[in-house]
């Protein structure tokens, strides 16, 4: 029987394990810490159609993930708070950009409305100086931890082995093919090794000398809390910061940096601090558009790493090492695409035929990109 080792217990790794649960193979997932405690726990937790540079392949891939989420939300398996996404434009250039986004999504079959300043004000945002905003009404907030536990729990009950607090320290090969993984607890034989290690994916690649264009960006989030109820969609401001409502009286304020060209590869085990510039940006943006938030207290903060690729789409592909598969570089959208990544990867590993939706996520699309 074929043996598969998955490295990484975030939302992508557990999705792959979940979708392999009924396959005719032995599946073991290795997580160096606790399940979902890395980037998954530090995400904005949004299920969103929003993209800065939409293309049809990416849109259809997300739609496939949406179908899985819709089923689990409708049957009560997963929670979902449909708050919508609002991409605001202040400058003429940004307004032209959101109109272009509207047209792109319309060509995919998703009709979106550009809200007027008065309509923006209906969402609790001071529209002074704003030209308009592209409105994604179906977007909303998921519970990533709950999704990870659903994936992992269902996989476990079906016979998948999930090892937490077990770090993979090496990937063994023979004659150009993987033979297993090394951990502190010993050697585990495997015919296939899947790198779903999130921000640790470049470190795992280094174990084998595999090159892939993966870099890190920071995703700082401040948690604001007030005395009164607050309702707010997921709002992108041109100033480079977003806000979204969280529960009854909290707001997340963060940055979703995905620019590969301005990023670098860092040590994901190093705790990232949040500098004064982030606090200043949040305060100045709130002062301009969400003045009531200036009375809120910052009750928590965290700074997670996003693993990005040059085109902002993930890599799901084989490598020059036979049996070594990449499922990484989610570029800040791991929560949104995880069900599709898991399903198509599992289909590929069990059938031996790569599903067509994975073709646009191949590693060789970056052959001209220099690390």
UniProtKB/TrEMBL annotation:
Pfam family membership, one: DAO
InterPro entries: FAD-dep_OxRdtase, FAD/NAD-bd_sf
Domain (FAD dependent oxidoreductase): residue spans on this chain: 4-348
Gene Ontology CC: one annotated term: cytoplasm
Coiled-coil parts of chain: none
SUPFAM superfamilies noted in UniProt: FAD/NAD(P)-binding domain (SSF51905)
Protein's recorded name: FAD-binding oxidoreductase
Species for this entry: Halobellus ruber
């Amino acid at each position: 029987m074929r043996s598969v080792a998955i490295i990484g217990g975030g939302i992508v790794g557990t999705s792959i394990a979940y979708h392999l649960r009924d396959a005719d193979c032995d599946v073991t997932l290795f997580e160096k810490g606790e399940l979902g405690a890395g980037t998954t726990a530090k995400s904005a937790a949004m299920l969103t159609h929003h993209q800065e540079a939409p293309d049809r392949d990416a849109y259809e891939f997300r739609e496939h993930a949406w179908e899985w989420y819709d089923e689990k939300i409708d049957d009560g398996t997963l929670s979902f708070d449909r708050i919508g996404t609002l991409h605001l434009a202040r400058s003429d250039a940004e307004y032209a950009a959101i109109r272009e986004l509207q047209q792109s999504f319309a060509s995919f079959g998703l009709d979106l409305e550009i809200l007027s300043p008065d309509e923006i004000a209906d969402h609790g945002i001071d529209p002074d100086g704003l030209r308009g905003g592209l409105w994604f009404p179906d977007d909303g907030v998921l519970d990533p931890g709950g999704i990870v536990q659903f994936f992992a729990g269902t996989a476990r009950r079906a016979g998948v082995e999930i090892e937490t607090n077990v770090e993979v320290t090496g990937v063994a090969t023979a004659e150009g093919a993987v033979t297993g993984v090394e951990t502190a607890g010993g050697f585990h034989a495997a015919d296939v090794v899947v790198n779903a290690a999130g921000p640790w994916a470049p470190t795992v690649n280094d174990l084998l000398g595999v090159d892939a264009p993966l870099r890190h960006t920071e995703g700082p989030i401040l948690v604001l809390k007030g005395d009164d109820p607050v309702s707010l969609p997921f709002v992108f401001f041109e100033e480079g910061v977003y806000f979204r409502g969280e529960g009854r009286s909290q707001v997340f304020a963060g940055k979703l940096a995905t620019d590969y060209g301005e990023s670098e590869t860092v040590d994901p085990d190093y705790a990232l601090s949040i500098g004064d510039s982030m606090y200043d940006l949040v305060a100045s943006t709130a002062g301009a558009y969400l003045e009531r938030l200036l009375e809120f207290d910052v009750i928590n903060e965290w700074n997670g790493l996003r693993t990005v690729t040059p085109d902002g789409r993930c890599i799901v592909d084989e490598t020059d090492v036979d049996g070594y598969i990449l499922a990484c570089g989610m570029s800040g959208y791991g929560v949104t695409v995880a069900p599709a990544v898991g399903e198509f990867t599992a289909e590929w590993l069990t059938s031996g035929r790569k599903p067509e939706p994975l073709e646009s996520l191949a590693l060789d699309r970056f052959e001209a990109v220099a690390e």
